User: Which sequence fits this backbone?
């Protein structure tokens, strides 16, 4: 799964730019500012990362089941975890 880090603790601001962030194609470790919020494609994370993070008390887990996207919120950070398409995974 690819991990996109969004550096804010404001859910309203995050939700306002969520669709735009998910639609963007960022290169690994590419950082940009979207409506005043820093966004970074942090690379890929293993599947068990979600399970491990969900066990922590200070982590909120949200899901977009239709697209298979998981959102983790902890501290001043949202992490958007997007499944890598099978065709993309085979190319890598």
Assistant:
């Amino acid at each position: 799964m690819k991990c996109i880090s969004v550096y804010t603790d404001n859910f309203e601001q995050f939700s306002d730019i969520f669709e735009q962030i998910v639609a963007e194609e960022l290169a690994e470790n590419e950082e940009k500012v979207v409506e005043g919020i820093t966004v970074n494609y942090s690379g890929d994370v293993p599947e068990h990362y979600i399970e491990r993070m969900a066990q922590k008390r200070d982590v909120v887990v949200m899901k977009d089941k239709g697209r298979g996207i998981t959102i983790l919120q902890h501290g001043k950070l949202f992490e958007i975890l997007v499944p890598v398409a099978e065709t993309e995974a085979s190319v890598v």
